[in-house]
Design brief:
By secondary structure, the chain is α+β, with helices and mostly antiparallel strands. It has helices at residues 53-61, 68-77, 79-91, 96-176, and strands at residues 3-12, 15-24, 35-41, 48-51, 65-66. Helix 1 crosses helix 3 (79-91) and helix 3 packs antiparallel against helix 4.
């Protein structure tokens, strides 16, 4: 039986997430599968991958063929590298400890780069929020100035009316005397 490691689509329209499964190559995309080995959510930044590393490695070693997208995900998670290193151990290119050391070094570097991306995204979000706050403060300041100007105009108009009223009362009071 030819097996494939592929993605099964789930979720709603325009918001898909995927299950990473091992299935018979002739089975429908969302149909019967042999084993579920993980999930992939491209809607987060960076994309979230939850993968059973040991089972994915096992299926690769027994001959399951990943689809292009599944191969990309497995490479990103290091499963393909681990398989490659274990094949090097089988051929005698290096020992298992060296292979494990190489994999751990790669994994540490990968985690550092992912953390850098997350930090960059959070800094960008903070900067955008700060810029929005400053823009809102400027808009509020402009509105406050307009309101203060209108209040000053109304107060000046009211003072002018009262001055006219007192001016009209003063001659009327003088003529009455």
């Amino acid at each position: 039986m030819a097996t494939k490691i592929r993605l099964q689509r789930h979720g709603r329209k325009s918001y898909a997430f995927y299950q990473i499964v091992v299935a018979n190559s002739r089975a429908p995309r969302d149909g019967k599968f042999i084993e579920r080995i993980g999930s992939y959510n491209p809607n987060t930044n960076p994309a979230t991958v939850d993968l059973n590393f040991e089972r994915a490695l096992y299926w690769l070693q027994v001959g399951a063929q990943p689809t292009d997208t599944a191969r990309s995900i497995l490479s990103h998670e290091g499963v393909c590298l681990k398989k490659h290193l274990l094949e090097g151990v089988k051929k005698g290119a290096f020992d298992e400890a060296t292979a494990e050391a190489k994999f751990q070094a790669w994994l540490k570097n990968k985690q550092a780069s992912v953390q850098a991306v997350k930090d960059k995204n959070s800094e960008a979000a903070k900067a955008a929020a700060k810029a929005r706050l400053e823009a809102e403060k400027e808009v509020n300041k402009a509105k406050a100035e307009i309101v203060a100007q209108k209040k000053a105009e109304l107060a000046a108009a009211e003072a002018a009316k009262q001055a006219e009223a007192t001016a009209e009362e003063a001659p009327a009071a003088e003529s009455a005397e």
